[in-house]
Specification:
two-stranded antiparallel sheet; single chain; disordered N terminus; Glutathione S-transferase Yfyf (Class Pi), Chain A, domain 2; 2 domains; alpha+beta; binds glutathione; four-stranded mixed beta sheet; 17 helices; Glutaredoxin
Amino acid sequence: MERNPIQTVANDVINNPPTSLQDLSTKQSVLKCHRLMSATHIAGKFMYHVIGSEESPYSVKVRSYFRFKGLEHQWLERSQASELYTQHAKLPLIPLVVTPDEVGMQDSTPIIEKMEAAVPDPTVYPDDPVARFMSDLLEEFGDEWGNKWMFHMRWWKEIDAVAVSRRFAERSGGDIEATASAIRERMVPRVWFVGGNKVTAPQIAQSLEDALGHLEPHLKSRTYLMGERPAMADFGLWGQIYNAGRDPTAGAMVDKNPNVRAWVERMLNPEVRGDFESWEVLAPTLVPLIKDQVANLFLPWTVANSVAIENGDDDFTLELKGNTWTQKPQKYHARSLGVIRQKYQAVASNAALNEILDATACRQYLA
Ligand SMILES: N[C@@H](CCC(=O)N[C@@H](CS)C(=O)NCC(=O)O)C(=O)O
């Protein structure tokens, strides 16, 4: 087994005592330099580091994935890992994963996909190709639409913004009220970024309530969304619902759905309890969620968003389930629509999948 760097340098000093004052000083400064490296870096040299925050849905998504895969890793709050973060982050976003050979990875979906390629077992991809694509689609839905539930509801109402900003402030210490108020000043205006405004606020809350209402019966008779083991869909949707579930208003909504609440707790440390289910078995309770939320809200929204980005529009407006939705376009989502469309292209010759995507009214947005 390889030794940690301090031990190696210390042994070198013992085995090869310094021969001159200059040599002594070199060896001392090497030792000091290694000591100065954060304790976590030293302790975790041979493991992954997952840098994020409990409050960040994409960070806890990746952490749960690492836990599920049994990948040796150390979870570091962003504030504990400034040096490592600055060294490896290319984008000002969390999560950041640093591999044992010190490569930085960002963006939760590609992180999971790269890890799946490197460490395939236990897989998060259902073996049934239809279930697998639906799982990817639900992951995308969770990441891109589910984030509106979490982020908008967290900062929209004062009761939530105050509670959450105090929770954030407690982590950073100091004057809690002053820090909480500074956090609110920074975060509340950002709800516009996810499309939260007076017109869309009731629609976002309704969407969360409806999605939870669809998930509740689906999770009555199974442990995870695609059967008895977690899939991509679980990680994407869970990160958002877990975080929403920690805030007052959205948390009360989650609590009304005991099966969802139990899944939320379970997904903190997901594990294999059995097999994935076939699409035929999943469909009766998953299709209503896909029709109502993915086909009627998320997909038309993401396509309109992407068109607005292409046209360079300042904002875009469309009708979603009979309500007017209006917002400024979001760049990242246009890119991720391209990615899910590519995933569809890779399986577009699957007749059974096409039949289901047509029946759920999803295919028109993906093809
Ligand atoms: N698509 C990215 C999104 C990551 C993201 O938006 N992270 C947020 C936190 S949840 C962030 O870092 N925002 C900037 C900040 O907190 O300073 C992913 O899946 O990892």
